[in-house]
Prior knowledge:
Layout: E1 28-34, E2 39-43, E3 50-56, E4 60-65, E5 76-78, E6 84-87, E7 93-98, E8 104-110
Antiparallel strand pairs: 1-8, 2-7, 3-6, 3-8, 4-5, 4-7
Amino acid sequence: xxxxxxxxxxxxxxxxxxxxxxxxxxxxxxxxxxxxxxxxxxxxxxxxxxxxxxxxxxxxxxxxxxxxxxxxxxxxxxxxxxxxxxxxxxxxxxxxxxxxxxxxxxxxxxx
Length: 111
């Protein structure tokens, strides 16, 4: 964008001018070594209403809300390698805890 911002409200368009389901990524956070202790991955920025989540290597439970998740089994179990787009509110806390016996990694892109 000409003004240097990282997000856009403009619609992506195909060659025939149909709208494309696309978003512009903002801040990207990578949290590796998610273990059996719940950890806050990121607090969502003040202008963010959607995030892209992707787990690498091992499943993790992911929680989104005003506080971090407390224990395994709370939140949503995300398998490795399956990205998801999730609606959030500015200031939400995204947290994670391992979903099995192996530590995993969670990648968060604010959209």
